[in-house]
Amino acid sequence: MKNQHIPLNERIIFALDVADPTQAAALVEQLDDQIKFFKVGLQLFFAGGWSVIDHIIGRGNKVMLDLKLYDIPATVTLAVKQFADRGVALTTVHGYTPVVEAALAAGTDINILAVTVLTSMGEEHLKELHFQGTVDQLVAQRSAAVLACGSHGIVCSAREAAALRKKLGQDFIMVTPGIRPAGSAANDQQRIATPGKAIADGADYLVVGRPIRDADNPQQVIAAMQQEIGTAL
Known about the structure:
Elements: H1 8-11, E1 12-15, H2 21-31, E2 37-41, H3 42-48, H4 50-58, E3 62-69, H5 73-81, E4 90-94, H6 97-104, E5 111-115, H7 123-129, H8 135-148, E6 153-155, H9 161-168, E7 173-176, H10 195-200, E8 205-208, H11 210-213, H12 218-232
């Protein structure tokens, strides 16, 4: 597997999917003894802006800025340029070739990840796109296209991970949301997997939010997940 050097405490990217920057800061301070990578999405970024990012990085952690940019190429390039020199490690754009190329054209040192198909989407949603194949086929098609144009990696569900690694190789970053410990509720995710399964199938990083945040003992959940990840590695 590529990226064997990734520390165990960076394999889980904790999703700070909260609206209150103060709550987000408290979660970072509660968890960063065990987890050193945090995801900031639209909700929190709009609420707290760059101060949230600065707080996370200031504590020695990494940030995945998950805004899933999708706009005309010039706008995407200018937007990604705003991320430069902010310490962001990963950022996301929608998995369409012109959007990915525009993000790369910003010339930053941030790893650009293309979101293939949202993990909340199922086969029934493809009818609206007039796509005749399956979700797996759409993910494979988009992944091949964005990697061919230079994307540093992709965001996909763990369900597609093994097939994508077999078809596309090891030389890209794979981030998988929709991770649920065995027995956890799926919530609004349709394409989910356990931590060990996702890593064994080729994921580099696992995005986890509610199963940790809503747990009675978050530290215990993290430790169990990290043990499962370590075994899979």
